[in-house]
Design brief:
Blueprint lengths: L1 H6 L11 H36 L3 H4 L5 H23 L10
Amino acid sequence: MSNNLKDYGSFIPGYRPGKRTADYLERVMVRITYVGAAFLAVVAVIPTVIADVMNIDMVVASFFGGTSLLIVVSVGLDLVQKIDSHLVMRNYKGLMEED
């Protein structure tokens, strides 16, 4: 990755091209991987926690976690973004802006 950045004339501000850039990118990738793995572990455990806490069937609880939860959140974020872009296009302040 650092060689690709160097070949295309790009750089990361504050880091020299080469070994320092490679080390920086490695640290960032490790952090992103750990945070992403922790998030996916929490999402995978949510149906079990809901089934145990609320004493409901696991089939019903599976609708509140895993892939369905990721889909619902991403569709909701996409809907808000589209509504906001339409409001801005029509010269309104936007959905998420305060006065």
